[in-house]
Specification:
Layout: H1 4-14, E1 21-22, H2 30-38, E2 43-49, E3 52-55, E4 58-61, E5 68-72, H3 81-90, E6 97-99, H4 103-124, H5 130-133, H6 135-154, H7 163-166, H8 179-185, H9 196-206, H10 211-227
Parallel strand pairs: 1-2, 5-6
Antiparallel strand pairs: 2-5, 3-4
Helix pairs in contact: 1-2, 4-6, 4-8, 4-10, 6-9, 9-10
Length: 244
């Protein structure tokens, strides 16, 4: 997401008359950002659902329980020529995929999962079981959820329409560390700008307060700065140590 602005020139160069661009990034605004550059007629809405983790030999996931690529038109006709063309393209690849008329709801459903389950555990530095084992972690997750759902409702997005098809996939053990925590563990910058950062921007545009997301955004940004060494004061000249 952070590299998307720098990739726009390349996207423009490869987009021809018959090019369809499928953005499989997290978040809910990359399609608009790309559409602003090359035109909405070239962009089809999509999301990918895969639970992965990094090991020494690369990123690993279970292909049998992976939901895969979900895509569709944001408005009628939902069974458009390009939707049919993509289905024909994917048919013999072994990829898991499906088209839907509720693609925006599907995108926001995953967005909700990332914001509410990905971010609080990243700040705490604990496995996903913390939401079941701590009323405090659940309260934080619920606060983030209320803000996200208020913004979705203001945009006319009924996330419940995607609920029936969004909850199936890999079983997640209590020790699981989602992508934001994996990034912080590895000293990488996170996707917080497309998660709480985007929600804060949308909240301001719509006049909807987002205090949980504002705090979460700044906290994870501070953790990124910590990983960058910004708060390493041990090497300062004239360090004074006090003991009692």
């Amino acid at each position: 997401y952070g590299a998307l602005p720098g990739a726009m020139d390349s996207i423009r160069q490869v987009t021809g008359e018959n090019t369809t661009v499928m953005s499989l990034m997290n978040g809910v605004d990359s399609e608009k950002l790309i559409s602003d550059e090359i035109g909405a007629s070239h962009v089809i809405y999509s999301v990918i659902k895969v639970a992965s983790h990094k090991e020494e030999n690369g990123y690993c996931f279970n292909p049998e329980t992976t939901i895969g690529i979900i895509f569709g038109e944001p408005c009628v006709p939902y069974d458009s020529e390009r939707v049919q063309a993509i289905e024909a393209l994917f048919a013999d690849t072994g990829l898991h995929y499906r088209s839907t008329e509720y693609i925006r709801e599907e995108m926001w459903s995953k967005f909700r999962l990332n914001v509410c389950n990905n971010l609080p555990q990243a700040i705490l530095g604990a496995g996903v079981g913390c939401y079941q084992d701590s009323v405090h972690m659940k309260a934080i997750s619920d606060g983030l959820r209320r803000e996200l759902e208020a913004i979705a409702a203001a945009k006319g997005i009924a996330i419940s329409k995607a609920a029936a098809s969004s909850g199936h996939g890999s079983a997640v053990p209590p020790s699981a560390r989602y992508s934001t925590l994996q990034d912080l563990d590895a000293g990488r910058h996170t996707e917080i700008d497309m998660f709480s950062g985007a929600l804060v921007r949308m909240g301001r545009e719509l006049g909807i307060p987002t205090p949980y997301n504002e705090y979460t955004y700044h906290m994870i940004k501070a953790l990124e700065e910590k990983n960058d060494g910004k708060f390493d004061y041990s090497k300062e000249d004239g360090e004074i140590t006090c003991s009692r």
